[in-house]
Amino acid sequence: MKRVVLGLSGGVDSSVAAYLLLQQGYDVVGIFMRNWHDESVTINNECPWIDDSNDAMLVAEQLGIPFQVLDLSAEYKSRIVDYMFSEYETGRTPNPDVLCNREIKFDIFLDAAMKLGADYVATGHYCRKATVVKGGTEVHSLLAGIDNNKDQSYFLCQLTQKQLSKALFPIGELTKPQVRALAHEAGVVTADKKDSQGLCFIGKVKLPVFLQQQLAPKRGKIIEIAPDNQLFSAPASGRDVDAVRFTAFVYTEKDGEIVGEHTGAHFYTVGQRRGLHVGGKEKPLFVLGTDVVNNIVFVGQGEDHPGLYRLGIFVVNDDVHWIREDLKLVASESKRFLARIRYRQPLEWCTLEQKADGLYIVFDEPQRGIAAGQFVAWYDGEELLGSGVMN
Length: 391
Hints:
The chain has 391 residues and is α/β, with parallel strands linked by helices. The chain has helices at residues 12-23, 48-63, 73-89, 96-115, 161-165, 176-186, 207-214; strands at residues 3-7, 27-34, 67-71, 120-122, 127-134, 137-144, 167-168, 220-224, 257-262, 285-291, 296-301, 309-316, 320-322, 334-340, 348-355, 358-368, 375-380, 383-389. Strand 1 (3-7), helix 1 and strand 2 (27-34) form a beta-alpha-beta unit. Helix 1 crosses helix 6 (176-186).
């Protein structure tokens, strides 16, 4: 009997994953990953990780599987939290959930599972895996989940072939309503539990609150950039690499007028609307960019502001990652793919072109809110082929 070590988070998805694995005849071990327990960022004196851990333990007892808590807080701090803070402090916007999967669940947790004699690790992600043999070697594909509203393949865009070879995604063929129905069938206590909206395995702690309690506030200017600013007049028509802008607009204090104050440029990201607290404008204000050195937030009116949109993304070679290494582009090669720059964004057509200095991605339609530090992921149909960190 093959052994599967499951990340049992205390939510309904991982609970049903455990139930399905048992039905499929696996020897299942449930492990709750304790990734953060800094009391300074709990909300309303709640202890979310304790609640989730207790729910995970109850599910394990109901299903009759072994259970333990694995404290990965030191690794989570060094690999995820410290990186997050350093990125935000330099004006970039990291994605902690993508990093958590790459660095924690499918690295540290995977290693721990292998020491317990696991053949596989499993999670409650809404995605799928397919395996074929090419030239005598197994090749693993990461596929989107059946439920388009819950597909979480984007969060796994940094996985490797080695990591995928050990991964199982038991609920990837199901929709969320089907998962809820199976939870009731199994009689687990999490059947009606709401989905977590917090950081990866931290629980109810939301990112803005987390940042504000860890990074010092610093008041600075909010400067509005008019849509007819000459910065936006440079031609960007055409679809070849040489005709498209691949870097963010660089603003200075002289490019606009002061319209308010903020509490720290490192708290804001491109495309953000909330938290500016500036009224009296004809259209809502959106963040166009930040200058963390001079502590300035640049904004523009309306969702159609030209500063919010770019056709192109550049990814340096060191930040280009192919899950399907057998399909990666070579120098001077280009190919059409579908891509997204954030979770749940509809897939958009684009052209990827590999050059000597990195990967250039040109979208058919301008993309809103491209933020340096975030991940772009590209797909061939339902298969996620690779990803990269945007500049």
